[in-house]
Amino acid sequence: MKRLFFIFALLCTSQVFATISATDISKYYTYTNADLSPDGSKLAINITQDGLGRLVIMDLSTFKPVGTVSFDGRYEPGNYWWVNNERLVIQVLEREIASEQHVNYGELYSVNYDGSNGLMIFGYRAGGTKTGSRLNRKQSTRGWGELLDVLPDDEKHVLIMSTPMSSDGSKLPTVHKLNVYNGQMSNTIAQSPVPQAEFITDSDGKVKLVVGAGENGYAAVFKRIQETNDWQQLSNEVLGKSFNPIALDSKNTSLYVTDSGGKDKTGLYKFDLETEEVKHLFTDKVVDITSIVFSADGGTPYALRLDDGRPDYVMFGKNTYEVKLYKQFLQTFPGNKVELISRSENGNKWILYVSSDISPGTFYLFDKATNSLQFLFRNLDSIPIELMSESKPVTFAASDDVLIHGFLTLPVSVPKDKDAPLVVLVHGGPHGVRDYWTFDRDVQYLASQGYAVLRVNYRGSGGYGSDYRYSGYQEWGNRIQLDIIEGAQWAMNQDRVSNDRVCIMGASFGGYSAVMAATMAPELFDCVVANAGVYDLTLMFEEGDIPDMLYGKTRLLEYLGDDPDILKTFSPINYISRIAAPILIGHGKKDRRTPFIHAELLRDKLIEQGKPFEWFVKGTESHGFYDEENRAEWYETVAAFLKENL
């Protein structure tokens, strides 16, 4: 903090604004998905450099690489799992032709930690011609493979779920054993009675439960009758719409779930599989549970993370070594989000990931034998942390007296006696999604340019209970926008925030909101930045990938309704004449979620009305800008646009 104060004082004295470069903030995270081998002797980690991803395995006694896995052409390693101390299973990601984004098509690749004996063991290319150096394959499967269980007591096999390919996700998945050394797959062990399924296995690798899309797409839960291998659906009377299975207990007789339990907030419950009795364990009064920390065996929860502003942790259960250790980590990194992402089987070594609003994340290694915590890697380490601006949790009362939560970031680059122009940054979704107190590229780049940034968890956002989430349904162009507009008006009355210079910015639903809010309060906003937005709601039932999804149209009817007059009223494309501010339009031509036609319609309407706008379009991008250079160019364009208009 002293160092931070010194830097801040220096900036105030010199009146020189230190900024984060668009190139630096646009870089991919270099390090992701660190995982220890079962014996704790090796560490595997995904590393991305110069836009290319690979899996690197390090010997922890020397911290030197002992193996690397990379693929030729447009393929790269994704998530992975240690099957034993020698062999890993890896998801294969594929970059679509003339596209920047990597996609998982369900292929699985197996390899020794030193990079030897690589084999494509599952997927549509598993039995075809080679696509990379020394990739041997077995029988091809036109299905999507997902690893269910590494089967710790079986060093040759894993349990996978295979879902036949379909355009809408309606196919029923099956469970198989898969040999990680030769790619041989067993006959079907179980088939889900419902699509979009998630199987739950016990400590012996037996399939016990399946949860999938039931009536209208809501969770349907079935338990497996071991004697007959039939499925028995659990009563809907004890399950809510927010029912989410987490893990079986250590005895394999009860299931830990998050659910509303007939209440507003989502809490933690224990569900007895035999009696179907439900035991309530914890529910917060303000927010839903964000995440749960389980014991190493996966059978006992001992910490809950809550996000009422900054992350907070509720500890419960027995005061075991794991609990004491986690408490120690939280005390070591106060005010940070601390994730236990991996540990060795004997519990002697742990990998932590520590992050905050001003830190994208740092990996640490804890060694029980020496009781030492060792720094490993930090993401975006080219950016000095002194240039990052802290985000403060805030609340304000909407015009109907409902309490709205959000975050206000005041730029460290602007002296305390100066007012910073305001950028209202609207999150996407909108339903079930929310802003968290976490590192955000957009926030930090905007703040480094000298702007205060407000993020609003408007009605419809997740995390604040079902009533709050449902209150945003069919309110896209009304109450949601009022929450955002009133949030901007509140922020403009705060210290160090300008009361007459404000821009609104967002992507996806945030892009829609940026334009819609500007039609509703044209006198408030000096400029609009809209990326990957939807501007004609009537097209959502016809264009894009949502109508083709299983229950996609059902969700759209829930969220938007089917009244054509309301859909038109909530479509900003019909009110362009009201907009007084210039608009920066960003979009990718390969966007399937909000197709490019939305940007074209908005552009054409602006030209027709004689309204000023700028145009930023990339032919190889989809829903957002993924390429580092494209993202940096977008940030530079946004910075120039804001400078001109604010």
TrEMBL record:
Keywords: Hydrolase, Signal. It comes from Brumicola blandensis. It comes from the Bacteria. Its EC number is 3.4.-.-. This is S9 family peptidase. Coiled coil: none annotated. One of its GO terms (molecular function) is serine-type endopeptidase activity. It is an enzyme of class 3 (hydrolase). GO terms for biological process: proteolysis. Residues 437-646 form the Peptidase S9 prolyl oligopeptidase catalytic domain. InterPro entries: AB_hydrolase_fold, Peptidase_S9_cat, Peptidase_S9A. Residues 1-18 form the signal peptide.
